[in-house]
């Protein structure tokens, strides 16, 4: 871990990343892609130490309240104490200026900041997480240093009990690894049990590009012998790769969401995530 003062903290769409790099070790991580131009070792996380100062400068000068979005590129909750302080300080500023928050994490460490999330939710707060595998043992292989699926589901339940709406990203689904009916049904049952507001799924598959492809294949050699060769034969250098079971699994996904009144329309969910004034009343797409 190392520290870096950054020149800016909010994107044009009010997104912020508090660090660069990650210690989670997920075998499929897109953030390893060379297009993001991370110069340092990926696991040597770069903490944007002046992020709270920059965030306060931005928020106190904004004329219109909005949603602040974080967690898309780097998880705001890694098991690094200094990074957690940066995250909490930023949440305190968001609460102070009464902005909304959409936050994505794979860690139940977020529960340490539940008090602030509840305060922010007086404006609007949405907690998101990814779920990839119902099998806890498999989870520890493909996502070795994060909260397990069971722990994340418990976190979602706690958020819901405290009046905070939750969104699940059902991705990535790795062909020939977790692309089974049993796995998807298990994950959807978890979402139903946690009473999530919505589920985002772009398709039953994943993305691979220069940087993360090489790392992913190295992990396949380590944990799934001979599977790399199958990927190369079937997908070559494709960026977006779908499971052979994509159609069947997507039908299961849509049917389950409709039956259980869980929003699965991506456009509706993204509007809800990014619009501070979007009505919290749940709308169902049949």
Task: Give a short overview.
The protein is an alpha/beta fold. The chain has helices at 51-61, 81-96, 114-120, 136-142, 149-161, 181-194, 212-223, 227-235, 246-259, 266-274, and strands at 2-4, 15-16, 19-20, 46-48, 67-70, 100-104, 125-130, 165-169, 198-200, 205-207, 240-242. The strands form three sheets. A six-stranded parallel beta sheet has the order 2-5-6-7-8-9, sandwiched between helices. It has a three-stranded mixed beta sheet with strand order 1-4-3, with helices on one face. Strands 10-11 form a two-stranded antiparallel sheet.
What report would you give on this structure?
The chain has 10 helices and 11 strands. With 286 residues, the chain is an alpha/beta fold. Strands 2-5-6-7-8-9 form a 6-stranded parallel β-sheet, with helices on both faces. Helix 2 (81-96) packs parallel to helix 3 and helix 5 packs parallel to helix 6 (181-194). The radius of gyration is 19 Å and the shape is globular. Residues 281-286 have low confidence and may be disordered.
């Amino acid at each position: 871990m190392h520290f870096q003062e950054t020149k800016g903290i909010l994107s044009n769409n009010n997104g912020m990343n508090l660090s660069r790099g990650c210690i989670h070790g997920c075998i499929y991580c897109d953030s390893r892609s060379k297009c993001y131009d991370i110069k340092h070792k990926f696991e040597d996380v770069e903490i944007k130490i002046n992020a709270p100062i920059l965030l306060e400068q931005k928020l106190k000068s904004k004329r219109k309240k909005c949603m602040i979005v974080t967690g898309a590129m780097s998880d705001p909750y890694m098991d690094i104490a200094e990074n957690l302080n940066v995250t909490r300080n930023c949440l305190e500023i968001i609460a102070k200026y009464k902005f909304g928050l959409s936050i994505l994490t794979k860690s139940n460490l977020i529960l340490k900041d539940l008090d602030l999330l509840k305060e922010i939710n007086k404006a609007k707060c949405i907690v998101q997480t990814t779920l990839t595998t119902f099998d806890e043992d498999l989870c520890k292989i493909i996502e070795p240093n994060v909260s397990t699926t069971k722990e994340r589901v418990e976190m979602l339940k706690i958020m819901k009990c405290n009046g905070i709406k939750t969104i699940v990203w059902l991705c990535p689904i790795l062909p020939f690894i977790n692309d089974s009916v049993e796995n998807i049904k298990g994950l959807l049952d978890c979402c139903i049990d946690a009473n999530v507001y919505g589920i985002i799924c772009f398709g039953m598959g994943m993305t691979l590009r220069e940087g993360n492809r090489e790392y992913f294949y190295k992990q396949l050699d380590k944990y799934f012998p001979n599977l790399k060769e199958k990927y190369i034969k079937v997908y070559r250098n494709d960026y977006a790769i779908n499971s052979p079971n994509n159609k069947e699994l997507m039908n299961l996904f849509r049917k389950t969401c409709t039956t259980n009144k869980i929003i699965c329309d991506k456009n509706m969910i993204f509007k809800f995530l990014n619009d501070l004034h979007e009505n919290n009343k749940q709308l169902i797409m049949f």
